[in-house]
Amino acid sequence: MKVGLKIWRYDAKTGDRALREYEIDAPEEATLLDCLDIVKDRQDGTLSYRKSCRMMICGSCGMRMDGGAVLACKTRMYEIAQRGHVPVISAMGNLPIVKDMVVDMQPFWQKMRAVEPYLQPRYDQAQEAENIVPKAKMDVIHKESLCINCGCCVSECNSMESDPDFLGPAALAKGMRFVGDARDGKTIERLERYSEPHGIWDCTRCYFCNERCPKGVDPRDAIAKLGAEAMKHGIDRDMGARHAKWFVVSAKTTGWLRETELVPKTQGVVKAIKEIKFAMSLLPKGKVPPPFPPHVAADIHESRQLYDLVKEQGRDGALGIVQGERALMHLEHHQGSGDGHAKHPYGAESFPLPHLPDATPEDDPNVAALLETAPANRSSRVIGDTVPAVAGAGEETTT
Amino acid sequence: MEVMHDVLVIGAGCTGMRAAIEAHDRGANVGVISKLHPTRSHSGAAEGGINAALGNTAADSPETHAFDTVKGSDYLGDQDAIEIFANEAPGDIYQLEHWGAVFSRNAEGKLAQRPFGAAGSPRTVFAADITGHVLIQVLYEQLQKRMDEGMTVYEEFFAFRLVIEDGRCTGVICWDIMNGGVELITGKAVILATGGQGRMFRATTNAYACTGDGLAMALRAGLPLKDVEFMQFHPTTMYPSGILITEGCRGEGGYLLNKEGERFMQRYAPNALELASRDVVSRSEQTEIDAGRGVNGSVLLDLRHLGAEKILTRLPGSRELAMTYSNVDPIYEPIPVRPGAHYYMGGVECDNWGRTQIEGLHAAGEVACVSVHGANRLGGNSLMETIVFGRRAGYSAAEYALAVTPGSSDGEAARADADRWVQGLLDNTKGERPWQIRDELGQSMLENFGVFRHPDKMNSQVGIIEKLRERYYAGVVIEDKGRVFNNDLTQAIELGYMLDIAACMLQAGIARKESRGAHSRPHDFPDRDDANFLKHSISHWRDDGPVLSYQEVRMTRWEPMERKY
Fold first, then answer.
1. How many A/B residue pairs have CB atoms within 8 Å?
2. Is pTM, for the whole model, over 0.90?
């Protein structure tokens, strides 16, 4: 297939930038990385980008396509080329460009190191055996431990754009990987550290990091978990924490958000006094309801029951954050009985059933069990000399 | 000039990082040199797991682990090394767990273990199907802790020449990838941990970085390489990319099918079926494909009967890979797979502490050949080797470095010489660009030195490599003349490495007139020949080509027997 690419070149020596257009012939299964390789081999040996594993695990090839961060090796070009679209390829954002798509990752690694990214065990480690940790407890940090340090989240982070010192989504997700680890003994110290300025409360919750993470880590969810854990442990000096806390207190006591008190509760009384002039201007518009007497919701007991239930279930910390929301989507599938439109592994037009050379499929209990749920019209596809088409695996099917 | 480090580690995959940690903890000042950032290393792409006889799932013992490994090696493994390996593996796993490795757990909260090929018991510890990623992360976490304590990491430094003075290895010459420039980094002891050379085959699971740098540097420094003809072909690499699908898929119960849906492994390994050793399964697949029972040059890895739940929890990474690169969701459809170059059993000859024949120079991991894997490696043993022998090399190098007084010369002459050489490469404007030579090498190695090795094809491959070497050494053109992040330059140097090693591989392969492990000659020598070839191939580089000799296999408890699965 013909693939067109517009690549932002960056000359390391002069600092000049230029948008160059390339057109290449690539096999239909080609990824963006494969296409860059073809450009480099056949058209322009001076093109620079990082690469290594080409299988979404080393994290080298983060770059931007049409303004959003992607892993080049994960990005299939077939549909893009079919549409006749010529994407713009450039270096990741929020990191200094060194040459073409190569950025200086040192700021990224320095922030990683700032979260003390190693286990500080609370167990005595002398024993010649593993720590016993229930599976469910390890699952808490499953998503955070998927991070491959590619920097795609950092590239798109809005907070970091306005505050280059913000620890950022990758480092904070790494922090959650230890806060959530039952074997780590420095939970409080970590939460104190991460709650400092440029930490968890400086995230603007734009969710671009979740959107752009190629591995389903969901860094914003990790930051939310850190916030919830911090508040659970009473670490709430930061305005962000106090702001969030007032939502909870307010909802529990009256069932409404008492906005008038939100400012003093968040910023402190002294600072809030400075806002009085602004508040007065809002008064005629009905935006500042009088704080006394408080307006209590009719079914306030429901709100309080909900609060108690969360406490009772221990979901006032990280567990209260939806776990694996995107991970579930990532794993989405539609296995069904074959009636209606749901697919079945042994349904119509499926591959031949597995069997030993001298046996039938039904002799295999696993196959027989799955076969029982297969639709009545099941049939095996005759396999010719073709493999399933590799074309057409766009982003949608995998992210 | 003052020596910069006690111990220098080249390569920062699992082996290099484990070695660096050990040397640091023994009191040495450690420098780590890596052409990639450490977490980008290809150890991170290991999927299925790491073998240690913990006995958490079923009864197991280091003796059984050792025996399985000896048998798997087709009796070419050195048995003293294998016993050390199996005995020390459990302690090293506990160490990794204590450091924080996020392994999968069983119902009791202990480390879960899954079955793997040719293993007498389920002994593969794992983290879903991203075990290598989890290990790379935990080792880099520990490395960062030690960086706070004075360890230095030279990231994106491309090591390309060893400095050998008065018979001692005293440093490494590198190209600083980020800034450009030839740098000398000195150390009292040096550990090679640069991994394999799989990129010389077109269909490979290996990363672009796996170009045999350490192998070639050692060879050029006069060191022998051992068992160079043994390249493992992994049975389940995806069509067409060569990307790895873990053996864990079969460990969890996956089937291999031909186009009729037949589990053909019954004809080749009636007991172990899909879980026979990798060389056996790869040959069986190739036989099916050659007999016309494949599907477009592949067979099918069928996971459908495992059910969605198991696939989603135990094999999510494999599913993601299949969906991304083959457009197949393994819950509904089998994955087309075929044998692809995966792991290099051969390597720099060294002892059980990683010591090579050059004083001060150590080797460990895939670049080394102790030999734990002999003629065929078992799945799950390579990650374990990186940890056990990385640790041992780190220990030994630190002991040596802390006891020895540094030599008198300073390596500057070697640096200046290397600088001139690189400048010569950059200045050359006549000749072809390297990529065509690289592609022809990859294609021809796969065709002529793959799963099955036909005498005529091997002989013609010798000529092909000779011609490619002539073209390469006539001068290739590096189009990028700049100094900053010039991977046009580094890739050209890497190609030279692969051409050297390929020449050694062919010579030893033709000379080994038998079939053993991954070296299979069904057309002329279909059987193992213990009388003549129960010995290691040893390759030296002399003047302008490889020279072959042999060395005894170290045997302790196990006599060679017929190998059946």
1. 254
2. yes
